[in-house]
Amino acid sequence: MSKPDKVMNEIMSLAKRRGFVFQSSEIYGGINAIWDMGPLGVEMKNNIKRYWWYHMVQLRPDIEGLDAAILMHPRVWEASGHISEFTDPLVECRNCHRRFRADEIKNGKCPVCGSDDLTEPRMFNLMFKTFIGPVESEENTIYLRPETAQGIYVNFLNVLNTTRQKIPFGIAQIGKAFRNEISPGNFIFRSREFEQMEMQYFVHPDEADKWFEYWRQQRWNWYLSLGIDEGKLHWHEHGPDELAHYARAAYDIEFDFPFGRKELEGIHNRGDFDLSRHQQYSGKSLEYTDKVTGEKYIPFIIETSGGVDRAMLAILCDAYTVEPERNDPNRTRTVLKMHPRISPIKVGVFPLVKKDGMPEMAREIAQELRKKFTVFYDEKDSIGRRYRRQDEAGTPFCVTVDGQSLQDETVTIRERDTMVQVRVKITEIAPMIEKYIDSWERDKGIE
Q: How far apart are CA 319 and CA 3, in angstroms?
């Protein structure tokens, strides 16, 4: 097994062992490329989404939030081009009956069995189709959305009129999307059900290039603010043969995963394609009128589109560290050195032993800290084992109640990355954690 494969397998094993990610319907054998988020996974994903929303919506007066429905009028997907354009060429091996995207076939041979007995490529639409209402008929056909962006475009006027925004402004949304991928894989990187963080920024056509460059830099900075190693991030510019049919310019932010350099987020200049098409298909004017100059125009759109699951996987891969034990170089410890704001658990609370009133005091401390942080209480096994479990969960702090705590109301607090322990008053735990997170961000150059 190659080193990258070994690392990826270790990360997947840790994700299952510590409750980040489970195979969907695992007791029935699972479903390929569909995943459930465990207790730590759902906390981590929620932290990523909150962090994105904070930077993209809460801090900005020019961006509004939206939560559009998953099911939309089928004409939406005609207008967007998804029914005619959202396809991949599919090839089937007649020997092993596996199916692949055409670009996965090398030298005319099946990637699995090596046979050259392959079908000709045929186009395969990636949208999941279902029916609305009690009758399964063509006129009742409806689709699970393959992206969240269209819900933003069809609500452009609703948001504009109710918020009294002016161009330039944006609409942001986090939500589920569904794609019937031919060849999903690489853990949660490419799956059939996933979550997107998208923002569509509406601008005057003459200012599209300026805003495109602005949002490229903003999105790059956001990934750096997650604490991700900048050396693992890269730009990929789409050439003329790569551009989507709607795009005038496009860049991907890519990350060096163990399985290769892959896309985290796309930044696109979509021109006026989307609003023009929805205006054409709906018969509803989607022009913007400048109240100062009286100019009417269909706005251009600058899109930022990233995956929550991909961001989570990138953080896990970047944070995953195996290092020698400080007191025993022949042994190693596994630790997730991730941004403390993204860590699913902020603090573990332990009694040193299960007697002499230590558990009672530790539970009281844990309950008080829960008012501000996610807390994990643990009294099983040795203190060293408990520390190691929290290291693997990415927990930045561990608080231990010992005999001295009962005398002077102080505890030891251990920091994850350095394993340094200091003694503090119980009342100082929460302020110390908050101060540490702020200083961690300053040390990383995060504003």
A: 17
Stated length of the chain: 447
Cβ-contact 201, 301 below 8 angstroms: yes
280 Ramachandran zone, left/alpha/beta (phi>0; psi -120 to 50):
alpha
Beta strands 249-257; 233-237: pairing state: antiparallel
Determine contact, residues 66/152, Cβ cutoff 8 Å. yes
Contact indicator for 312, 41 with CB cutoff of 8 Å: yes
Assess whether 296 and 357 both reside in one domain.
no
Instruction: Tally the domains of the chain.
Output: 3
- The Cα 250–Cα 243 span in angstroms is 7
29 and 10 both lie in a single domain: yes
Is 68 in the same domain as 99? no
What tokens appear for 387 in the block? 């520390």
Residue from 402, 398, 404 nearest 429 by CA: 398
From first to last of its 447 residues, the chain has per-residue pLDDT tens of 778 789 999 999 999 999 999 999 999 999 989 999 999 999 999 999 999 999 999 999 999 999 999 999 999 999 998 888 777 788 889 999 888 888 888 889 898 899 999 998 887 778 899 999 998 888 899 999 999 999 999 999 999 999 999 999 999 999 999 998 877 789 999 999 999 999 999 999 999 999 999 999 999 999 999 999 999 999 999 998 888 878 899 999 999 999 999 999 999 999 999 999 999 999 999 999 999 999 999 999 999 999 999 999 999 999 999 999 887 888 999 999 999 999 999 999 999 999 999 999 999 999 999 999 999 999 999 999 999 999 999 999 999 999 999 999 999 999 999 999 999 999 999 999 999 888 877 776 665
- 233 with 225: CB under 8 angstroms? no
* CA angle in degrees (0–180, nearest 5) for 328-345-314: 80
The residue ranges of DSSP E strands in 244-396, in sequence order, are 249-257, 260-271, 288-289, 296-297, 300-307, 320-324, 332-336, 347-351, 375-377
Q: Do residue 290 and residue 419 come from a single domain?
A: no
Domain residues for the domain of 116 are 87-125
Q: Per-residue b/e over 237-259, b at no fewer than 16 CB within 10 Å?
A: eeeeeeeeebbbbbbbbbbbbbb
Residue 59 lies in a domain: yes
CA 10, 15, 17, 18 torsion-angle sign: positive
Distance CA 361, CA 286 (A): 62
What count of other Cβ atoms lies within 10 Å of the Cβ of residue 360? Answer: 12
